[in-house]
Amino acid sequence: QTPHLRTFRDGWRTLRFFLMYSPRWLFLIPGVLLMLIGLVGYSLALPGVSIGGATLDVHTLLFASLAILLGYQSVQFATFAKTFAIAEGLQPSNPRMDALYRWVTLERGLAAGLLMGAVGAALLFWTIVIWWQNSFGAMEYAKTMRVVIPGFTLTALGVQTILSSFMLSILGMARR
Questions:
Q1: CA nearest 151: which of 65, 91, 26, 85?
Q2: Among the four 22, 90, 154, 168, which has the fewest Cβ within 10 Å?
Q3: Within 3-140, where are the H helices?
Q4: Residues 74, 34: contact at Cβ < 8 Å?
Q5: What is the pTM of this model?
Q6: How far is residue 165's CA from residue 151's CA, in Å, rounded to a whole number?
Q7: Quick one: which of 69, 65, 68, 44 has its CA closest to 56?
Q8: How far is Cα 163 from Cα 158, in angstroms, rounded to an integer?
Q9: 10-residue block means of pLDDT along the chain (176 residues)?
């Protein structure tokens, strides 16, 4: 008799089921880990630390920014998924999420996003001013990118925060 189980297909279906019903393991934990890796990368790459003969320079800073951006977005997805599950009655409300909703409001999210975006834009503008002072000629790459990459990252995080604040408010409308 031939077995009716298909190892890969059935294994994937089981894993998919677990991940779809566990935003903590699908989004939150990987997102937090990515953001932590990115922050460690920033703390080492901004000053240009050397470890074992390898200098962590602006390329490391760029990878760290990617980790922070992807991690931040993943954490936002975890919050959206949990909010949706609570709003649809798939999961009960819990005190931790209730506290988050009291603290993270649309207005606070907009203010934080605008602040991050403004700091990021200021860093980018500062780079343009430096370029202008150099008569739009060549600039010192490693020095300039230490300003451009954080400026880019903060601007992107600011926009993500603004958009996710609106999305979280939309998803949370059923709670009111």
A1: 65
A2: 90
A3: 7-20, 23, 29-45, 58-87, 95-103, 106-133
A4: yes
A5: 0.86
A6: 21
A7: 44
A8: 9
A9: 77 82 89 98 93 92 97 96 88 88 92 98 95 90 92 98 95 71
